[in-house]
Fold:
Amino acid sequence: MGAKGEETRARLVQATRALIEAQGYYGTGLNQVLAASGAPRGSLYFHFPLGKDEMVALALVEAGEDVGALIAGMTGGDLGPAEVVRGLLDIFGDRMAESGYATGCPIATVALETAAGHEDLRLVCAAAYDTWQQALARMLVRHGHDRADAEATAGAVLALVEGALLLARVRHSRTPLDQAARAADILLRATAPAH
Amino acid sequence: MGAKGEETRARLVQATRALIEAQGYYGTGLNQVLAASGAPRGSLYFHFPLGKDEMVALALVEAGEDVGALIAGMTGGDLGPAEVVRGLLDIFGDRMAESGYATGCPIATVALETAAGHEDLRLVCAAAYDTWQQALARMLVRHGHDRADAEATAGAVLALVEGALLLARVRHSRTPLDQAARAADILLRATAPAH
Structure:
């Protein structure tokens, strides 16, 4: 594939990412993806011969990797766990407000739509969440939490972040993100190992 | 409207509730609602002259009221706040497992799909979440939390529950619900007023 082909493919995936994050899998039609990407119709079937689901799966994988890299970058530095969670919520909150609440968790909408009826896409979503949670758990282990607590607390922190992003989007308000950051701080202090 | 008309209308709303909870607003077609409800096509436009959105809005309102009544019933008794949260997660978890993970929060999928692109339905979803959160906040005030803490902690508990329901659905696992119940217990102990 030439550079132009690669660029067209990337534009298709980028448009799909934005549309499924804003409105989900079922609400996103191929005509919208073509219009948003400016790609010709034929390119869609050239780059994604299996059609919409192949393109959506790749969009979810890329979005999951981007968030995973963001978490890995923040947890790999000097920040404490509560600062990392607050930082993540700030980043998502800025992005959300700038987009008119069209963005939040890039996986969540499709995850809910496909949880019971579309096994291939559900598994892609589940894999993204697992990666994020494991990065959070590793951070807690590095900060002295034992393995069982790190796993359980990381799961709860991820739930708190996901729920807060959902509530912030539906309310068009950052307050749920602030409330989640406060609660994560309390939870992480309470479960932190004694010095 | 006669008893038969009322019954047909109720069946249409019930089918809509189940379908939008499992797969969302955009994934739910009127033909699916008709098939699931067994109602004749003409009845749809008779009972819901404004069409799909009117029926979906009513389904969301009813689902929101049912969860609101569940929360009110549990918070009105002798249970402590952490027991209420664990009880709610147990009830949602049982229902979720029995449905093959087709159920969770009855509002969440539509809330995410419509957060940026369908203002009427977004506001219906936001109103349901506000009602639930206020019931949780009132419970915390009755248990001695001051108003500001009750509001912030109730928001975080709702986020925790919503995020855990999302993760449980996508993973086909109750573990996120258990992790959320543990975290809610820690959060509620840490924010409880001193005796």
